[in-house]
């Protein structure tokens, strides 16, 4: 039988996130921001094409963002 491995001290581990992790987190934030606000520029076009009011278009965009958020849990 072999002996169990010796416990390591917490000083052996680096508690700071690496640069790749930080860049990844930053990119996720940027893309989440773009997902929510990228549709803003085409709202008037959607309103004309769908013959909808401002409130209806706002609800449609809000429902899309809410649906996207609920599916990403």
Q: Structural class, judged by helices and strands? A: mainly alpha
- Our Rg estimate from Cα atoms comes to 23 Å
Element pattern in H and E: HHH
Helix content percent band = 55-70%
Please tell me the overall pLDDT: 81
The biggest beta sheet reads: none
Flag low-confidence runs.
Answer: none
What is the approximate shape? Answer: elongated
Individual helix count: 3
Residues in β-strands, percent: under 5%
Number of strands: 0
Termini separation comes to: 45 Å
Sum this structure up briefly.
This protein is mainly α and 73 residues long. It has 3 helices and no strands.
What would you say this structure looks like, in words?
Helix content is 62%, strand content 0%. The chain is mainly α. Helix 2 packs across helix 3 (54-71).
List the helices and strands and how they pair.
Elements: H1 19-37, H2 43-50, H3 54-71
What would the keywords be for this entry?
elongated; 3 helices; mainly alpha; 73 residues
């Amino acid at each position: 039988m072999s002996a169990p491995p010796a416990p390591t001290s917490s000083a052996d581990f680096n508690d700071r996130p690496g640069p790749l992790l930080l860049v990844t987190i930053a990119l996720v934030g940027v893309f989440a921001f773009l997902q929510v606000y990228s549709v803003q520029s085409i709202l008037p076009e959607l309103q004309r094409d769908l013959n909808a009011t401002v409130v209806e278009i706002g609800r449609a965009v809000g429902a899309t963002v809410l649906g996207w958020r609920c599916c990403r849990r």
